[in-house]
Amino acid sequence: MTAPYLQRRRAQMTEAARSGKQNIAEGTANAQQKPKSERYLLSIASASLKELLEDYKDYLRQRGLPTWGKDDVDAARVRQIAYKTDKTYASYKPYMDNPTKAANAMICLINQTTYMIDQQLRAIERQWDERGLIHETHEQRIKRIWDEERKQEEKFWKDMEEQYGIRRTDRDDRTDMSNKTDRADMTDKTNKTDMVDTTDRSDMSVDTGGTDPPSPEGYGRAGKSDKSDTTDPPSPEGYGAASPPSLDGFGGVSKTDRI
Fold first, then answer.
1. Helices 35-62 and 99-131: crossing angle, nearest 10°?
2. What is the number of helices (H) and of strands (E) in the chain?
3. 43 CB burial (10 A radius; 0-12, 13-18, 19+)
4. How many Å apart are CA 171 and CA 173, to the nearest integer?
5. More confident position, 247 or 26
């Protein structure tokens, strides 16, 4: 009976191998319609296969099995199979009857596959550069701009030191002294302002001697009692306003005459 952790590892390796194959197929199928999708899917395929590569290396290392070198005879033979025109899965069958050979053969195949994927990704990036497409993320763009500015600054100070003998450390020392002087001046100004404000507040305070402030009546304002003694406004007759004239005065006809 296989241990649970070995079953889980086998399932993960199978899923990584399937992810690599399926993303290659999907990415190349949509290369013309969705160029950005091609790069994204091929990147996922490369990452999945490299994860599978590490699993095979762990298998050999944990069991103390030998790993083929780059110039090993068996490794060279496995790599040459990929260049045959009549190759099939049966072409690799002689290397699958032994765990050591099988793991090393898979390492060779994964290295070949990821190398070709990486080459394809570089070709896609060159095409994007020619077409003016942006292929870097926001973080990569910020890092690139920061690196370019840092290189320009280093070049500037190198030229300044060669031509005028001014070193960047001298400038930093002068900047630090200037900053300290500015902070000291600001602190002195703040202290002086606080002292002036305290003096002004002490001058504005007046000792009233414990007496109540004068009422509004003392300044010609009417209190509540004065408001209650106010008389009613005069009628219109008091200002000589006349009642409206009758119609007779304008030659009008009275009600009796109309009847």
1. 160
2. 8, 0
3. middle
4. 5
5. 26
Taking alpha carbons only, the member of 21, 51, 52, 26 closest to residue 39 is 26
* Residue 83 vs residues 17, 39, 68, 112: alpha-carbon distances, Å: 21, 25, 20, 11
- Between these two residues, 105 and 195, which has the higher pLDDT value? 105
Q: Copy the structure tokens of residue 183.
A: 């902070």
The span from the CA of 59 to the CA of 256, in Å, is 131
Token pair of 207, please? 């000792």
Average pLDDT over residues 171-195: 63
Please work out, in degrees rounded to the nearest 5, the angle formed at the alpha carbon of residue 154 by the alpha carbons of 152 and 141: 45
Distance of CA 157 to the CA centre of its chain: 32
Q: For residue range 197-209, list pLDDT tens digits in order.
A: 555 555 554 444 5
CA 212 – CA 209 distance, rounded (Å): 9
12 token code pair:
């993960």
Asked if residue 125 lies in contact with residue 43, where contact means CB atoms within 8 angstroms, the answer is no
| DSSP label of 247 | S
SS3 of residue 136 by DSSP: coil
Name every residue whose Cβ is closer than 8 Å to that of residue 81 and which is 6 or more positions away in sequence. Answer: 87, 91, 92
The DSSP line for 1-52 is ---HHHHHHHHHHHHHHHHHHHHHHHHHHTTTT-HHHHHHHHHHHHHHHHHH
Token pair belonging to 155:
């070049």
Tokens standing for 134? 């942006």
What letter represents residue 129's amino acid?
A: D
Per-residue tokens: 63: 């069991």
